[in-house]
Structures are given as structure tokens and as C-alpha cells.
Amino acid sequence: MAVKNNPLNSIVVSGPIPAHLARAVIEETLRNAILDGRLPCGTAIRQEALAQLFGVSRMPVREALRQLEAQGLLQVVQYRGAVVAPLIEDNSLETYELRLLLEAQALRLSVPLLTDEDFETADGYIQALEAEIDFGKIGTLNRQFHQALYCKAPNRKLLALIEAGLIEEERFLRFNLEQMNLGKLCQDDHRALLRHARDRDVESCIAELELHLHRGVVAITHYLNTQHAKQP
């Protein structure tokens, strides 16, 4: 009889985890496994199995799963519990509309407070994006670039909501970079965003962000249309 493959076997835990770090370690480990595809869409995530894997009680496991659900990486399904969320859902276009509202507000709050060091950090992410060929690292660098421009916004709840949207995009980027048209054109978008931020031109920054996010809308629309066409 064939042994059923367990996706959790792809996760390696090195040694015992300090109790005060358990939730954060579990959350980061599972997030990375979801983002890089080791835990595919639809994979059931069992609390008991995770507790045994990480050598902890169920409490930090529940807290980690709750955080991942808030980030859109997990869904709670009746009779199955937590499962890895679909890569893209039919409401993902609405997510991009919400992202524009949230990220535009973050630019309004953050850009006037950004320092030369912040600008250099953002520019460093652009340079790294131009040189990077690893799809997973590209997704992370893209998220970090945007966060560098929003980092001075004093509204922590706003930044948390934005981070959730960026994590969702990061996951999509890792699997669909060609459809997203990421490359020279996309880095031109990033450089324009950074240029307007350096000039403290918030409205031009927001206009550039809208164009930038529209490329994501086009890619997701294409992806969803392709998936619907495959359905019988």
C-alpha cells in the first residue's frame, strides 16, 4: 500500500523552541512553507500534528494559525478546520481596490516623515530586485520595498492591514511572476514611486501607485479567466 504524502514532512524544526518564541516561530515557519509552495492550496493544517512537530502545546499553535488566517493564508473550513487558502480568489480584485485606499493613505502619512536613510533602504530593495532571479526572494523584496515607503505612517493598525495585502501579493508573485510582468517595467514603477517620495510629491506618488497596482489587477484578471476556462 502506498504511503500517503504528508506535506508537514517538508517542515524541519531545529531543536526545542523557547516558550516565549513559540507562536512567532510557528507562524513564520508555516508562512514560509505556504509562500514557497511546500504547503499547497487546500492542505489541512491540524493543530495536534503541529503541536507534536514543534514540541509545544496547542495554545501557541492556535495563536499562530489565527495570525495566518488574518493574513489570508489560511481559511477555516467546516469539518476540516484550518486549510491553506486558495492562491487567488474571485474577490482578489476587491482586495486590490482596498489596497489602493489603504496604501494611498499610508503614503500620505509616511512620505513627509521619511528620512534619507529610508530612501536609501528603498533604493537598495530596487537594486536587489533588478539583480535577483529567485522568484521567492523577488516576492519578499517587492513587499519590503513597499513597506519601506509606508514605514513612517504612525497608524499601526493601518500598516498591519497593508502587510496582510502585501503578503497575499507576495504569494501570488512567487507562482505567477511571468504573468505579473515583473522586470524592467515593474522596476521603473518602483523607481518612479521612490522619486516622487524623495520629492515629497505625495499625490504623484499615489497616482504612480495606482498605475502600479493596476498591473496586478490585469495579471489577476488573466489568472482568474484562465482558471475559469479550465473548469468543465
UniProtKB/TrEMBL annotation:
SMART domains linked: FCD, HTH_GNTR
Residues of the HTH gntR-type domain: 20-87
Report which superkingdom the organism of origin falls in.
Bacteria
Coiled-coil annotation reads none
Say yes or no: keyword rRNA processing present: no
One Gene Ontology term of the molecular function aspect:
DNA-binding transcription factor activity
Instruction: Give the protein name, as stated in the record.
Output: DNA-binding transcriptional regulator, GntR family
Organism name: Pseudomonas psychrophila
